[in-house]
Amino acid sequence: MLISLVAAVDQRSGIGRDNRLPWHLSDDLKHFRRLTMGHHVLMGRKTYESSQGKMPGRKLIVLSRSAGLLASDVKIVSSLEAGIQFAQAAGETELFIIGGAQVFAQALPFADHIYYTEVHADAGADTFFPDFDCTQWKEISRQDFPSGPKNDFPFSILHLEKTNL
Q: Residue ranges per domain, the chain?
């Protein structure tokens, strides 16, 4: 099973502000939907709450240390490893990990791919994607998008693959 991270990151590696995305990028959201549809998607509790659990067509796995989190539509796990094992046992071919910052930091060593949206702006984020060694990743594809009525900022969607695969 492949493990893939999906992140949109501004010029300062920012991924969020006040537990929300600090931009609206319609074309990136469409890409995210196409990429993850039909797959297991793992995220932290705060990411789940900020998305309001609205991801139809995907099987949600939420990493939480809180035993009080009750959600009938998701699998709650207490560790990243348990989430990976759950998806693998379910026959998943590619698990998508979508944040937040702590989950990305834990998952980065296990990742085979990163779907990395570079937002060409400083969005004033207060939450950041972890540093990673770019020399360990090869750019497979890149698609550039302009800002406009549906995209707050110009951005590029990169598909990165770990070089030691």
A: 2-162
